[in-house]
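Quick one: structure tokens for this chain, please?
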Amino acid sequence: MRSCWRSAVATRSSSISRPRPIGDARWRRAELGAQPDLTAYRLFHGDAEGAPGLAIDRYAEVVVVHADSAAVLERWLPEIREDLRDFASAYVKVHPRRASRLTGQDMQQAAPAAPLWGLGVHDVEAIEGGVRYLVRPDAGLSVGLFLDMRDVRAWLRGNARGLSVLNLFAYTCSFGVSASLGGARRVLNLDLSRAYLEWGKHNYRLNRLTLDERDFVYGDAFDWLGRFARRGERFDLVIVDPPSFSSSPFSVTRDYPRLAEAAARVVAPTGILLAATNHAGTSDERFEAWLQNGLTRAGRHGQLAQRWHEPSADFPLAPGRTHPYLKVRALVLD
């Protein structure tokens, strides 16, 4: 992909005469692009970089374009084609307000399986901090790796040694992979999608990790947290990262305190609750109140060990926003 960054420099020089938000953003990320152990990051964050409602992610030689509407995509399509033409393939995702309610036909229109240009690509191997992840650009609206969690995955690799870990809402198990690579004694990945758990197993294999089928559990988080609590089973680290919008009855704004309570009940003494939400309408203060509410109901006390927001290098804060959209806390419980 070195040719991409030569093109980025050329794009920058040609943009002096007229604004080119996407080309300029590529130039600002040249340092990220030069890292040999990083081929997955946000290439363009339009809300903060001159194109509200548009975002572009890089996964090795493939770009994935996210638009809030077909009108936004149409507005920026000429610049996308011009400024990203050196990437081998591009895919488009048009995100509706209620993605969980999409029918199969609606999903095909929102996230076409065919690329915008280039050859069709089903599997892409992306690298982050030297860790390999399987990304599927043609797999609906979510392609397998949430790039804004890069710093949290790095923290897990550096802090999980010897721990037992429960990874709730595991998705494709990137947190599980990170904790395992960090030397965790055991990681149990739990999700309500068998397909995502199988995807997670691919990620384990990509990184040559020992794979135990018993550590990939299909089921509901509340159901399993109740089982663990009744059995007296505890974990040194419990990861809670529920989707903001889901086809399940779970609602982040209504149910997060209850989730934090259930998770806190299975955290071992002096263990860690790692809790996250990407709900943009929730402030840091409100999120922390949810966590405090849950801990109080569980009879636990927590001390803040670490906090994260989206990485500023490729997720700059949009003008006028009072708080980042991603909130992550690591709390040490008594």
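DSSP finds twelve helices and 13 strands in the chain.
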